[in-house]
Specification:
Strands 1, 2, 3, 4, 5, 6, 7, 8 and 13 form a 9-stranded mixed β-sheet that branches. Strands 9-10-11-12 form a 4-stranded antiparallel β-sheet, with no helix packed on it. It has one domain: Acetoacetate decarboxylase-like. With about 210 residues, it is an all-beta fold. A hairpin with a 7-residue loop joins strand 11 and strand 12. The protein contains 1 helix and 13 strands; from the N terminus they run E-E-E-H-E-E-E-E-E-E-E-E-E-E. The N terminus and C terminus are likely disordered.
Amino acid sequence: MRALLFAFTLCTVAGAVGAAEKFSSSNVDVRTVISFKASEAAVQKVLPSGWVVASPTSGPLKGFNVSINFIETITAQDAEGKSVPVFRGAVLAVPAKKAGSQDTGVFVFTGLVGPESVPGAYGVYVPAKAAIERKVRSESAEKSDVEENWNFRSEDGSAIVVELRMREAHSPGANQKRRSTLLQSRISFGFIRWSRPPKPFEAFLTMSTV
């Protein structure tokens, strides 16, 4: 697998619903996304019959076909405001669409996550021990140095380990945009057992990167 682009997103996301929808829960997450370009044939094998890889054709993620989404939920509450178990995991996904369709999204095909989140909404997660460490050093409001260590290991020997060192530039104003520059990285991962989605629609998820 060849790395095409490291798209690091360190963000805080609050779950929300539209006015016409029923509120079910809310959560605040920190996420880091790493995107790769791998063998097209190998990636196609994780998709069910009738689905195809749909890599972006433009923009900074042009050509990527698999991503690792590192997610740490800081706090989560149900509709009544009661705390619920948080999510900690490394989720693997493929940009995909149903053959003949123009609607694309992200197909979640496996992931190493905390035992409390197994099997997950898509029925594909593998339980793993999670160790997450994050350090931030800032000498000004416009710039900070960030170190992240994500370590997920399951009992069957599957593992995803990532160590990152980044420099973040903070844009002033109401939007508070951040731009990260990779300074150093160490990435290793391997699966002994691959979880496969039981039904295409249950594993199909559209994800947005903030």
